[in-house]
């Protein structure tokens, strides 16, 4: 049997390797955008979305083996949840129960301090709205459904996933990576250190709010124009030498 410490190091190494893959994919996508190659851009965007879901899963695996985190029994309870999104919510629930000593009762504004319960609800909403779509799109892509994500029976296109996939672009996915990173940092603090979680929650949540704002307001078309212009300026400069 491999020790918990060694498994933790394995998960850290996996995260770093996937981060390198994400960076390389983003670089290739920017090149394809600058060259106005729509087919290549689409391929790299799909690959980035797949890797983002893989990266999120690795962050979860690392969380399970954090020092001062979960016992083997608690890890087994989390792993028993089949869906990755449910594993994330179980991580958050168990961490709140441990830190605030609420072993069995329903978590509410009476069993938790009011501000802590508000944070619990906020985290669950973020997991639902920001993380679940990334996980579900990744699952479709991992099964080769790069253009038409199918329903679980494989009998028809799943329209909401089809729309999600086709609404993504490199800029939106990079913002979503930032969202998952900030969300993972919050959950990490919750699992490892309650004082750190309470101290840094507002700062980390503000990062998430700023990223949400960027997702709503930043123009992908302007981003494309910038990359194309930079490419064309570089070509002109080389020709002028």
Shape: globular
Helix content: over 70%
Radius of gyration: 20 Å
Biggest sheet record: none
Q: Structural class, judged by helices and strands?
A: mainly alpha
Mean pLDDT level: 93
Low-confidence stretches at least 5 residues in length (pLDDT < 50)? none
SSE series: HHHHHHHHH
Through-space gap between termini: 63 Å
* Percent of residues in β-strands: under 5%
Please, how many helices?
9
In total, how many domains does the architecture comprise? 1
Please give the number of β-strands: 0
Kindly list the characteristics that best describe this protein.
241 residues; mainly alpha; 0% strand; globular
Structural write-up:
The protein has helices at 4-34, 38-64, 72-79, 84-100, 114-142, 159-167, 170-192, 194-217, 220-240. With 241 residues, it is mainly alpha-helical. It has one domain. The longest helix has 31 residues, at 4-34. The model has no long low-confidence stretch (mean pLDDT 93).
State the gist of this model.
The protein is mainly α.
Question: How does the SSE layout of this entry go?
Answer:
Layout: H1 4-34, H2 38-64, H3 72-79, H4 84-100, H5 114-142, H6 159-167, H7 170-192, H8 194-217, H9 220-240
Helix pairs in contact: 1-2, 1-9, 2-5, 2-7, 3-4, 4-5, 5-7, 7-8
